Amino acid sequence: MNAFALGMRLLWGSGRRARVRFLLMALGSALGVACLAAALTIPTIIAANDARVTSRAISSGANKNAVYQEFLDPYGSQPLRRVFIGHRGIGPLPVPPGIKALPRAGEAIVSPKLGEILASNPRAAGLVPGRVIGTISPEGLGGPDELYAYIGTEADELSGAEPLGHFGDTYTRHQVIDPSTLDILRFTLGCIVLLPLVIFLSVCARLSGESRARRLAALRLVGLSVRDTLRVNAGESVVAAFVGAVVGLIGYLGINEVMAWVGLPGLRWYPADGRPDGTTIAVCLLGCPALAWAVGQFSARRAAQAPISVRRTGERKPPKKYGTLLLLPGLGIISGYCLLDAMGRNPSGGSAGAVLVPGAVLMTGAGLVFGLAPITAWLSRRLAGMSQSLPLSLAMRRTEVDPGSALRVVTGLVLLVFGASLTQGVLIELDQVSRRTAPIQEYSFSAAELSTRQRSEMTALSGVEAHGLVTQSWVGNLEGKPSQVRAVIATCAQLAAFTETTRGCIDNKVLRVTDATFPADEDARPGRSFPFLLSDGRKLHVPLPQETVTVRSYQPSELGGPSLLIPPSFLPPGTQLADASFVLVSPSDPATIRSVLDGIGAIAPTASVEPVGIVIDSLAQLTVIRSLLVVGMVLGLVIGVAAFVVSVADRAMERRGQVTALVLLGARAGTLRVVQVVQVVLPLVVGLGAAIVTGWLAESSYLITGGGDVHWDWDGLPLLFACALGVVLAAALASVPMVRRHIDPEHIRRD
């Protein structure tokens, strides 16, 4: 305690500079802890959502008083869940969380978000038949934006009803994110948030490392023991980290309240879900000071054990090269997978890749961190030996002597670029799993559910490229094996929008359709005529011609495998087909799909839409994952930029004595600025170049072992290069103001 008290007295008695350093250490720790709390709370938010959804899950039983039937439909791009309750008796019934009693026939209880939709859009009233008598409280909802309803009805009206058992289950249902996907998300967030965060907190704990080492060496020389010297240093670091941890937690609590109200795309939560639990609080309040103590012990050991060499700025030991060895197994594994795929041997599948690739990614990331210092020192020594430029020689010699400072400056940004590559791979893989791989997306409706005006409005939606009708010929006698053909009503341009290839199409002419991906239709023989039932009861007889149009359909597709192409002009004016599917087509990127589904929901909220080839829950899950990964990237960017700014400013303050000596020797301001910029840019270029190469290889190995169609993300490389170039330019510009030529010569009085 005496050593701790001495450290605090020295801190507050060492002048304004020491107090500013303490404040910066505390603020840096506060920022880091706020980011740490946000990263650790994401699984808690998801778990709270899943727990409430599971608590209302319905199980069948032997209850004779009521039956139920659940429906899941898309309302726009959101899942809409409705539970119809049919009463058969007056006995007691179980009650789900969030409501006081189940609704009777003609009544409904809805979630607040669904209530807002019903109030603002009268056309959506058909989704919830009956009178809304209340809303579901948060205990019965996954989140504030969930669309959920309990609807009372007559038991005889439910065709697939089951006896109502009880609410709540021991197994998690309707998870926000699939468990296997959640593991991938945790690993990715750990790479892009937690690893840079550890580096950043270490940087904050070592602010003003040289001046602190000189001060500790002075204490050691006047008689303080090694143990007490280390305690003096650790006391200052631990107090700053603890104060910062408290401030960071308080700041995160405020941010959580705001973000819970604003929400993320696809995910909103209640404020209580995002408040840190006991484990998170303990990790933040104890883990951050513990890390500061460990870093302080390591950084101060040289000053405590060899104080004379510190006071006389003795020669430093070169950085150890053992950390670089981590790159060898990591790069070996991910390069091996990439090489096998390039040779045409697909190594996907099996459990080995699920273990080897994540381990190789971690080893490669650690090798980037620990190998950057020796690689930078070696490169600096070579460049200094070859250079004839004074600024470049000064910069390289300084970097050679102290590569560790360069490590602190650029490591956060290097890990951010490495993590960005991995994030791109995760998004590509999830995108392949969650949606169809074809470049188009179809939306199918029952044409009878839509009015002419609704069809017209849907075809005008942004993103919709074409539309068509699909129907079957009319069969009057079902005995035996009736002859029937499938027909599509569309123009040649509309047919081309739905298919991969189209050859031989003639507008305003009935044509037979041949598709190489489907077997030939034996009933569709030229000369035969098939009737199609019209909305007015008449029948349209269509003869099969000799002329054909050859197409190749995407899979799956509503227009796949038709035998007949009928132009819209062939239909009698003012009539419609009695039994047909109305199909829209748009590009298949997730943003367009969500936009089209939202537009459909606004135009025809009660129409049943089938997004062909995708599951609406998967689309919603992909939206949530994208949002969380974007949050992780933002946190990683904040951490990386903060580490860079703090490190560059700290280096500028620490080297004022060296800059003063160069000024007194006649160095020009331009020379000093070039030296400062090169000292920052060189390790940054080396680190970012290595991060792009290794990150792209790690991403490719992940995609290869994932088993998807995309193995090489060539489209992501230009983005990574552009980001890296932007980081280098921003770092170079930010380094220029850090050099002040007019410095008091008093800074070198001790030398």
Please count the beta strands (DSSP E, at least 2 residues each).
18
**What general form does the structure show?**
globular
Percent of residues in helices comes to 40-55%
Mean pLDDT: 75
Could you provide a short overview of the structure?
It is built from 20 helices and 18 strands. The protein is α+β, with helices and mostly antiparallel strands and 751 residues long.
Helices and strands in order:
Elements lengths: L1 H12 L2 H40 L2 E3 L5 E10 L2 E10 L19 E4 L1 H9 L10 E5 L11 E8 L7 E6 L11 H27 L3 H13 L4 H37 L8 H4 L3 H28 L1 H5 L15 H16 L9 H35 L3 H12 L1 H32 L5 E7 L5 H8 L6 E7 L13 E4 L2 H7 E5 L7 E5 L13 E5 L5 E5 L4 E6 L10 E3 L13 E8 L2 H14 L6 E2 L4 H39 L1 H9 L4 H38 L9 H20 L16
Parallel strand pairs: 3-6, 4-5, 10-16, 12-15
Antiparallel strand pairs: 1-7, 2-3, 2-7, 4-6, 8-17, 8-18, 9-10, 9-17, 11-15, 12-16, 13-14
Helix pairs in contact: 1-6, 2-4, 2-6, 2-8, 2-17, 4-8, 4-13, 4-17, 5-6, 5-8, 6-8, 10-11, 10-19, 11-12, 11-13, 11-19, 12-13, 12-19, 13-17, 13-19, 13-20, 19-20
How would you describe this protein?
With 751 residues, the protein is of the alpha+beta class. It is built from 20 helices and 18 strands. It has a nine-stranded mixed β-sheet with strand order 11-15-12-16-10-9-17-8-18, with helices on both faces. A seven-stranded mixed β-sheet has the order 1-7-2-3-6-4-5. The protein has a two-stranded antiparallel sheet with strand order 13-14. Strand 13 and strand 14 form a beta hairpin. The longest helix is centred in the first third of the chain and has 40 residues, at 16-55. The model has no long low-confidence stretch (mean pLDDT 75).
